[in-house]
Amino acid sequence: MRKLLGILFVIAALYLSYYLLKEITWESKPAIIETFQDTMQQTAQKAGTKLKEELDKVEQSLSLQKNLSMENTSATAAVSNTELSTSDVDGIVQFLAAQLDERSPSVTFRIEGSYDKVSSELSNWLDQALVMNEYSRYAMSSYSYTISNKLLYTEVELKTDFRESKEMTEQVQQYVKELIASMNLSQYTKEEQIKLLHDWVVTHVQYDEGLTRYTAYEALTEGLAVCQGYAMLGYMLYSEAGFDVRIVEGTAKGQEHAWNMIKLDDRWYQLDLTWDDPVGQAPDDVSYRYYLVSDEELSKDHIWEGDYPVATVSYKTTLKEKAAVLDAQSEAYKELQALREELGFHWHDDEFTVSAYDELRELLKLAVEQKQTELEFRYVEGQQVEKDVEKALRSLNKRLSYQMSYYELSEQGDTAVQLTFAYS
């Protein structure tokens, strides 16, 4: 933007100088003046061309914001004449849910019934309304209300403040609809669809370390968001793709956190898009550490409370169950195994697992005796991997060199290890 303003200033100054010189009456205009005028005109034309180039760059940089505009100012206070009664709680909850979806800064309405009843139950009714549309719940930053006791009814004024306006949400919905259509998801299985959308979010959004961007709208327009923005965008994408999906709130490592749950083939799974996109990771790197995990797995570093579905098994387990009933020579089995390797689930198979030092030494001894040049395994005692590998290889007393790469598979420290050997 500064570059654009600078170019505009140069153009304005050049054209002003050009026309001032042009208007001066010369008995005999010096050749240098004519040359100067020509030079200024050419320079201004070049600056104009440069301006167009910069505007084209800006347009390209905003390609992700197609059909997305900045926040609206159209929301206004409202007064509702809808007839509500404390004898119809469902009607009150549905009314409140509709008002929250409208995102009005305030709405005033009447409820037939006692002041005491409304006072004691309104907060509960609002909680129920927010559950009806989780997206609106997380688009909202705060709400408050005042209750007035009238002669024949109770009057309520509900005030709300939203981080994402109704117009913003509608634009997110439209963008997501177009994105889903462009991905042509119908040609993929449900399992593949979940992975494709997971990978899209992880590679197109980065964690906002400034902790100021909370919404799916900001995730799309700026490519930055905190966990709430990841979860909202995940909710919108998976909903549009036809999945049952929830937004879950709780804590992770003692910090407030939000993530998703998604249903696949009658099983619910936990899905943390934010933690599959660690800070400092390259934009195109994708982790599957928190991909379709069980409650038991996630509870090792996440805590949540509330009325959420139960994730009894992990997708890891589901895929192993599917593999167990397939012919190992069939194409279906090979495709499933390829998927397991792509997700990194194969590391947890018994054949890849090394639990302690003695087992590690025996594995390395066999590999060296057979002159293997590459070796992969999961080491449960991951914190000790460098020390233990060096110790085990030195104990073999063989002339060889090796290179090792590894990365943690979970918060528990188990580590995927890849070794390359060269023999003398």
What do these coordinates show?
It is a single chain. With 424 residues, the chain is α/β, with parallel strands linked by helices. It folds into five domains: 2-56; 78-162, Translation Initiation Factor IF3 (2-Layer Sandwich), CATH 3.30.110; 167-312, C8orf32 fold, CATH 3.10.620.30; 314-344, no CATH class; 349-423, Vaccinia Virus protein VP39 (Rossmann fold, 3-Layer(aba) Sandwich), CATH 3.40.50.150. The protein has helices at 2-23, 31-61, 89-102, 115-132, 134-139, 166-183, 190-204, 216-222, 227-240, 295-298, 315-324, 331-343, 357-369, 385-396, and strands at 78-79, 84-85, 106-112, 140-149, 154-162, 206-207, 224-225, 245-252, 255-264, 267-271, 302-304, 353-354, 374-379, 400-408, 415-423. A hairpin with a 4-residue loop joins strand 4 (140-149) and strand 5. The chain is elongated.
